[in-house]
Specification:
The protein has 8 helices and no strands. α2 packs across α4, α2 packs parallel to α8 and α7 packs antiparallel against α8.
Length: 216
């Protein structure tokens, strides 16, 4: 177990764990987005999907514990690395070489976007997961009613902008942490990161736009 302790306490180890948890959360975003696409199919399809997810408690609870643990580790390490970087004054931030001037803004805003996303997640859970689903259209009805409010629509889309910024820089940082950092393919990595962030932004933003501007 000593090697685990050394790995966890080392700067490289923490950055690699940060990268791993970040990539796992990106995977969760894709799965979550794919499931939410059933909102376009209709109440029956989406509610049936949601019911299947929540009905099997033997799978649901362990999955939620694992997901929460990934979030907790990612957030905890983000705070630790941010504090360490600020104390170092001039040290490398978030596993990306600071010599890349184009990354300075994204790097500096990672703590802000991360904190904003955490707040959004808590609000999101209250508005949807812990909301009353007993209405005639179930969870679908909750989502539809929520996105009839322009304030929530604007806040949701704005949060997706921040999420896209965070994910775009985060994916690139994670890949560079594992050695994919070379002038010959850095441009490709940047495009992949940006493309993934664009997919996340467009995909999730399509839901409030659909319910407010099309169904509303």
């Amino acid at each position: 177990m000593s090697w685990i302790k050394r790995y966890w306490s080392s700067s490289i180890g923490r950055k690699q764990i940060m990268a791993k948890t970040g990539l796992l959360l990106c995977g969760f975003l894709i799965v979550h987005l794919a499931g939410n696409m059933l909102l376009f199919v209709g109440p029956e399809a989406f509610n049936s999907y949601a019911e299947k997810l929540t009905s099997n408690k033997f799978l649901l609870y362990p999955a939620e514990v694992i997901l929460f643990s990934i979030f907790a580790v990612h957030i905890g390490l983000a705070l630790k690395l941010t504090i360490e970087n600020r104390m170092a004054r001039g040290g490398v931030r978030y596993a990306v070489n600071a010599q890349a001037g184009e990354m300075n803004f994204a790097t500096k805003t990672m703590p802000f976007t991360g904190a904003s996303i955490l707040i959004f997640i808590l609000i999101h859970l209250v508005n949807f997961k812990f909301a009353d689903h007993s209405g005639p259209f179930g969870l679908y009805g909750v989502v539809e009613a929520h996105f009839q409010n322009i304030g929530w629509v604007v806040y949701y889309i704005f949060s997706m902008v921040l999420l896209a910024m965070h994910v775009s820089h985060g994916v690139q940082s994670a890949l560079q942490t594992y050695g994919l950092n070379h002038p010959n393919f850095n441009c490709c990595i940047k495009k992949i990161s940006f493309g993934f962030a664009t997919l996340i932004f467009v995909g999730f933003s399509s839901f409030p736009i659909y319910f407010f501007f099309i169904k509303g």
